[in-house]
Amino acid sequence: MAMVNKSIFFGFMGILGFVSMVTFGGYVYADNNVHKLHTLKPSNKDTDHDGLTDKEERKLGTDPRSADTDHDGLSDGLEVKTLKTDPKDVDSDNDDLNDGDEVVKGTDPLDSDTDDDNLTDGKELKLGLNPLDSDTDDDGIQDGDEDSDHDGINNSDDNNDDNNNDDNDDDNQQ
Ligand SMILES: [Ca+2]
Ligand SMILES: [Ca+2]
Ligand SMILES: [Ca+2]
Ligand SMILES: [Ca+2]
Fold this sequence. Notes:
There is one protein chain. The longest helix is centred in the first third of the chain and has 39 residues. 39% of the residues lie in helices and 0% in strands.
């Protein structure tokens, strides 16, 4: 009877030891995970390295896994923090010239008519005019008041801005 009790006793201690080891192991494992999470600081994580944290990007609606959400050649961080352009709109001022091209050409990505001559930056480039010079040919007439395609309609009012002469006989009738 005593032997049976001893066996039961040691058997019980063995089970208790095993359970303790699993519990202890589980505790250490959980603690390591907590430490890892603190080290990674998820709120400061910038997965796509564009200068905006994943949290900021979620708030702005930009893609935290794409450094240039609108594919205009400018990173989300540069658009939001420096240029103040829209990181979700390739052409923030709607002048038919995308934000990245404006930065390269030196025009203002937030002003559709950088040189204030009544012609948008995009239209000036289409007509072969300088969007940074209100009077490209220095003849005293502003680019917007010129009639580049000689159709009798000045550039700022001419919606057919293909720079072609639609009035072949110059009688002001197309
Ligand atoms: Ca980012
Ligand atoms: Ca962009
Ligand atoms: Ca633009
Ligand atoms: Ca202009």
